[in-house]
Write a structure and sequence with these properties.
The structure is a homodimer of 244-residue chains. By secondary structure, chain A is an alpha+beta fold. Chain A folds into 2 domains: 95 residues, Pseudouridine synthase I, catalytic domain, N-terminal subdomain (Alpha-Beta Plaits, 2-Layer Sandwich); 136 residues, Pseudouridine synthase I, catalytic domain, C-terminal subdomain (Alpha-Beta Plaits), CATH 3.30.70. In chain A, helix 1 crosses helix 2 and helix 3 packs antiparallel against helix 4. The longest helix of chain A has 13 residues. The first copy, chain A, is globular and about 60 Å long. The relative contact order of chain A is 0.19. Chains A and B meet through strand 4 of A and strand 4 of B.
């Protein structure tokens, strides 16, 4: 058996997200997993570092899988590049320690949320940004972002109910103007379902003056989804990096 | 009457090119012209700085039109942004001198041809590049490019027959490596039908070692399309800038 670590880029526009959902098709996990199974001639169980929502992109998603095949990494990678659709790219494939697991071994993840913050039409990047020309108070957003960093129960920033712990550590939320874009870069040990998008929506409401920068503590304490802001649209979000 | 200069960006993927062709629809000229006519309530004759081929993009195409309407430039621009599809963006609209004509007044144009020159899959920029992982001899391409600059009869670099003069002045062809991409930047007083794409295809053949860098003079002298290289695919080409 060989354990592999696979790095993938994808444009999520056409997909139902990373995770296979029951028997429905259209997930990236299913597309890559079934392509690998066909190449290797055995059922491949593919583990992603985590889910990305429908419509969310990945610059470098990580996945792992084991195979008894004796094909070389180079051959598998070349076949993957041949058979995957053009909106899913196999960036690299490396042999990994047998204990390596893309999700369980992950230490930290970075997501980038891109806002096209201009009246000028966005033609070329429109599939990867949230078009939002409103004037945003960046200083207020940065102040609010600072209060969200640290180890907290992020129940207010999760969609759906769950008995699983909502405690996560967000190590950094950095805002950066890049010409007409505003980038929000979130780094943490893990993120709940829709969490980055709800954090973004809430920070944007602070930027628009709809919420005070000082209200983040109260939202966290509420442990209730209705206390936080909107869920920002999926296409602005990209899984940027996973660290092990 | 007011004469306007309109700056447009577009992703050419879905279109038959800039120019209206008889009664068929699907050209960018027709889309923008009919939108303007609807907004201004009169038949608008739109003049682009020049054609772009089917599938070719524009970062800043220039167009001009006259109108008797008393709407302000700001109102017209705002309406254009509302009604144009998301792959055509009205970047700016300015009042121009009555003698200004986007094509006849143009002094110089720059086109950029982008080659994705890597084995690594191109996921996010795939609509705007020619994917060509071959090893390219950049020095040989630069030497060939230098021989193509200047005032020449470019009949060998034009698709189709025409009695019109094929003499053009190419002031610069610059090659630049940008990470996995190779950019070819062409500047000149005007370009014939398919000319930038044939220049690119010919330079690529030099880079691949299929032609010698020194053969450009002979191709120009032949004044025959068959003497030059292939026509590079349209999606790699972007009209970058028009100067007046």
């Amino acid at each position: 058996m060989t354990n592999y670590r696979l790095t993938l880029a994808y444009e999520g526009t056409r997909y139902r997200g990373w995770q296979r959902q029951g028997n429905t098709s259209g997930s990236i996990e299913e597309k890559v997993g079934s392509t690998l199974s066909r190449i290797l001639g055995e059922d491949i169980e593919l583990h992603g570092s985590g889910r990305t929502d429908a419509g969310v992109h990945a610059r470098a998603q990580q996945a792992s899988f084991k195979t008894a095949s004796e094909m070389s990494a180079e051959e598998i990678l070349s076949a993957l590049r041949q058979y995957l659709p053009e909106d899913i790219g196999a960036l690299s494939l490396q042999e990994a320690d047998m204990r390596f697991h893309a999700r369980l071994s992950a230490k930290e993840k970075t997501y980038v949320y891109r806002i096209w913050n201009s009246e000028t039409p966005c033609v070329f990047r429109r599939r990867w940004v949230w078009v939002l020309p409103d004037r945003l108070d960046i200083a207020a957003m940065e102040s609010a972002a600072a209060q969200l960093c640290g180890k907290h129960d992020f129940s207010s920033f999760r969609t759906g109910k769950s008995n699983k712990s909502a405690v996560r550590t967000v190590t950094a939320i950095e805002l950066e103007r890049r010409d007409k874009e505003l980038w929000l870069r979130f780094t943490g040990d893990g993120f709940l379902y829709n969490m980055v998008r709800i954090l973004t929506g809430t920070l944007v409401e602070v930027g628009q003056g709809k919420r005070s920068a000082g209200s983040m503590g109260a939202i966290l304490e509420a442990k209730n989804r209705t206390a936080a802001g909107i869920t920002a649209p999926p296409q602005g979000l990209t899984l940027w990096e996973v660290r092990y």
